[in-house]
Amino acid sequence: MAAAPDLLFGLRNNFYLGAYQAAINNSEIPSLSAEDALERDSLVYRSYIALGSYQLVINEIDSSAPTALQAVKLLALFLSSPLNKESVISSLKELLADAALGTNPTLRLIAGTIFLHEQDYNEALKYTHAGGTLELHALNVQIFIKMNRSDYAEKQLKIMQQIDEDHTLTQLANAWVDIAVGGSKIQEAYLIFQDFSEKYPMTCLVLNGKAVCCMLMGNFDEAESLLIEALNKDAKDPETLANLVVCSLHVGKSASRFLNQLKLSHPEHTLVKRMASAEESFERAIQSIA
């Protein structure tokens, strides 16, 4: 018997590659099972979160919604304001401690995502390390790369390749690992992003992936043109702005406009925090010798 068609393939693909509006616009899929409908709703709400529409998600998901959607709502609350951080983490841990709910893959994924944001990698891995879905394995790859443990990231990638070598998430994870390992692997990562750009509509995620590879290979002019293309798609995308800051400095152009945009739209971004920390250290050094 032929396998049943995967009705959510296009929606998942759009979400994984960062085509969030396309995921939302094409989410009306007929004849979905209850399980698929729940996954569809989860992906649509996560797409709204990725676009910064936190309040819409918070308003639409009520207390009677399934666990997966409750978890997605917690992510929206967490990202909407730093003031929500403590209450969100408390609610999250309450859900995770419930024997009946704690194994829910979406709940574990959101927990991993939130603790990754908090840079609490050990806490993130507590909920994600067992895997179970390709998304959880892909998140493990990201966590291990953040921990500078590309050896562990490679092990997770091998598991993903055994499950489905051609899956979009497996290919993305492969590119992330190649970038982390560096050297001759950068060219391989570039080819993965190039393949995506030939198969699917260009997104900020794919353009930034190609641009990072170009920068690592010393090709800053191509990187700059890819990043400007990404900026035309989304003028507030944090990774595009951060990469443009780095790229501009390398090509000898002023990076202040991109840095100011990043500070205004994403004050919590790692690059903004690092720059502020460096400026403080510089000021202290000046005062110590003044």
UniProtKB/TrEMBL annotation:
Keywords: Cytoplasm, Cytoplasmic vesicle, ER-Golgi transport, Golgi apparatus, Membrane, Protein transport, Transport. InterPro entries: Coatomer_esu, TPR-like_helical_dom_sf. This is Coatomer subunit epsilon. The coatomer is a cytosolic protein complex that binds to dilysine motifs and reversibly associates with Golgi non-clathrin-coated vesicles, which further mediate biosynthetic protein transport from the ER, via the Golgi up to the trans Golgi network. The coatomer complex is required for budding from Golgi membranes, and is essential for the retrograde Golgi-to-ER transport of dilysine-tagged proteins. It is a peripheral membrane protein. Belongs to the COPE family. It comes from the Eukaryota. Its main location: membrane. It holds the Pfam family Coatomer_E. It is found in: Cytoplasmic vesicle, COPI-coated vesicle membrane; Golgi apparatus membrane. One of its GO terms (biological process) is retrograde vesicle-mediated transport, Golgi to endoplasmic reticulum. Oligomeric complex that consists of at least the alpha, beta, beta', gamma, delta, epsilon and zeta subunits. One of its GO terms (cellular component) is COPI vesicle coat. GO terms for molecular function: structural molecule activity.
